[in-house]
Amino acid sequence: MQDFLIVGGGVIGMMTALQLADAGHSVALVERGECGREASWAGGGIVSPLYPWRYSRAISALSSWSEGRYPELAGRLLEETGIDPEYRQKGLLYLRVDDVEAALSWAREVAKPLTRIDADALYAKEPSAAPGFDSALWMPTLGSIRNPRLGKALRERLLQMPRVSLHERCEVSALIRDKGAIRGVATSQGAIRAGQTVVCAGAWSRALLADIGIELAVRPVKGQMILFKALPGLVGRVVLKDGRYLIPRGDGRVLAGSTLEEVGFDKQATSEALESLHASALSIVPALADCPVEHHWAGLRPGSPAGVPWIGAVPGFEGLHVNAGHYRNGLVLAPAATRLLVDQLIGCEPIVDPSPYRLSD
Length: 361
What we know:
Pathway: Cofactor biosynthesis; thiamine diphosphate biosynthesis. It is an enzyme of class 1 (oxidoreductase). The chain has about 350 residues and is of the alpha/beta class. It has two domains: about 1-70 and about 150-215 and about 305-345, FAD/NAD(P)-binding domain; about 90-140 and about 220-305, 2-Layer Sandwich (D-Amino Acid Oxidase, Chain A, domain 2). The chain has ten helices and 16 strands. It has helices at about 10-20, 40, 55-65, 70-80, 100-110, 120-125, 145-160, 205-210, 270-285, 330-345, and strands spanning about 1-5, 25-30, 90-95, 115-120, 135-140, 165, 170-180, 180-185, 190-200, 220-230, 240, 245-250, 255, 295-305, 310-315, 320-325. Strands 1, 2, 6, 7, 8, 9, 15 and 16 form an eight-stranded mixed beta sheet that branches. It is globular, with a radius of gyration of 20 Å.
């Protein structure tokens, strides 16, 4: 029997496994597909909420703690696996923001560098930006990570660790109940037992917990993105306008995203979304019109009320815990969300107050 069993091999599940194994515990991780290939792969990798001043303190507490951890994590994974997650800290330009004063007030309150810059400064930082903007907001500390490579590096690191066993392409059918406790899961590959079970299954977490009478307010929210094949330097940093964004990669490719669609578990990419995303991208950087769209895909975010995740013990069931419902901010919140739960699992002082994320009795 393992010390811990984690259901879900996204970034949340893999970071949880990494931290528990670092602390000397044995861990089994169960994933119905391949680790890191669902929402963690499908997102963009911006290491901040898009408009952080519009979020609650519960989100801000986790995102503030997480943001500074990615450079260290990326460096560690590169050293240990040879896979570079490509953390880039090039800042973010906000074009056409309606609530500038609220943004600047938030920045002063949390001591975050965020300034209003004029057109000359805007186009000096991003010469390819669409003409006609007389100002922008500039956040110099924002970073981004190449999330598919982050997932690949985390998976490789876990495969190297003798205390971790990965069970991929392994469908969980039920939680194993032992009176008032949960002692593992029944799967397509047989029962896997553990002293403590953590559900990190993203949009699929609700169905698993519903089988034991727990109602978790998590739902799938589809997001579609496109990838342009561009030359290095066309887009230098993350640029955000009207809720849509461009994210440059180190090899010149540029991501454009994303949609928000309440369509259940439908992951079909649509021509309507492709046209909309393409138009949004060109409204930010018109020169992308000359760049082919190399890829178009969809993923399912784990939506939750106000985007606040559920993190902690599941009331009424000894040995059962959850970390799900991060909505648009799974990668953003992952270092803090996983650390907060691991602190509680192994008896350390929590990094932030855990009460806003608890499931109610």
